[in-house]
Amino acid sequence: MDFIDRCNTALQVLWDYVRLHHTATVTSPAFPVLLAFSGYLLFSTPFALMDLIGKRLPLLSKYKIQKNQPSLQMMGQCLRQAVFNHLFYVLPGVTINWFWDPSAPLPVRAPTFTQFLTGVLSCLLVFDFQYYCWHLLHHKSRWLYKNLHAIHHEYVAPFSWATQYLGGWELLTVGFWSSTTPLLFKCHPLTTWAFMLLSVWMSVEDHAGYNLPWGLHKIIPWGLCGGAPAHDLHHQNPNTNFAPFFTHLDQVFGTSNKD
Question: Can you give the pTM of this predicted structure?
């Protein structure tokens, strides 16, 4: 059995377990919200601990891009905003959509490994384009920036919890794309959930404020992924680096900053 066959088998075993034992959970309208929010909490916590320990861990603090350390008060402010947005914007919106268009029955077969990878990558690329356009518009329009997006730029030195320090409109927009983009490619639920979690991880890593040697921008070749250095520059110079994940759109449209 070759590598692809083993991956196909592993995906089917995983999917059979989910489908046979957790159908009620994964078909709940709250599941996508809980999945994304849990990912945000889980992925942000290690970076938050690094920030709190600060200079007492020189092995890690040397990778800090800006030396400003967030306070507990700043972290708490971001967490309160994230919880408020999910409770009063995202969860009601998802619930209304579920009653309007209930989830389809779960498929019996898992995606193949090839379908899984191409689906996740396709969703990331489309989402990257969607958010680039939205982000650019909300920086070029003074009214949109001031009234809808400025809250996210309160911190010039971003940190992990600030990933979801957003207004309700922005979080709803991002959530809408995250949930509808997989529909364009008719993605399997496993593929959709993987895309959601990976996009949350990449967003947290972008905002973490650490240029770590194992960051995705170091692993993905040819500078295709911007990572924390690119997004940190965006918070310092908000007229550049609008794409959330990759670098090609900023390079094509002349909004790239690699300083």
Answer: 0.94
